Amino acid sequence: MVSYQQISLPLSLYGRADINRLLREIAKIDEFFLAAKARQSGDNIQPPRVTRVLSALAKDNQLNLLQADDRKFLKDQLEAILKRAPDLHISFASDPTPRALEKIVSWLRQNIHPEALVVVGLQPGIAAGMVLRTPNRIFDMSLQAYLKQQEGYLAKLIGEAAR
Prior knowledge:
This protein is an alpha+beta fold. The chain has helices spanning 16-38, 52-60, 68-84, 98-111, 143-149, 151-162; strands at residues 87-92, 117-122, 129-133, 138-142. A hairpin with a 4-residue loop joins strand 3 and strand 4.
């Protein structure tokens, strides 16, 4: 029997939607084993596919998805994470690459909270950079915000250049 403690999330699992998808996947596995018990032996049944993310989550936490206790523990932990994990909304000018997003999530989990969840949005108007929103603060690290801060200085430079 595995001694259970708080699970660690893989970097490819970064949002509430991902956790909800895993919970549905675990429920399908539970349904499969329940149906397998009710069927006659010799019936050909197809087990549900396990996604790469669920497989990585189970492997990283040394859990066996074939064991009902491990699946229940994983389900309970994921539901608890949904309740307690901080949500960070990050808006970019364009879709970030998965690699860039993994680096951001890695930094957030190492420096902010080990279960930080990220919601990615698009705001083409920010041109470059990003806008980070937490429940009580907004951090605008966009090129648009930087240029607005430098508006007086830019006007002065343009005025001097026009003379």
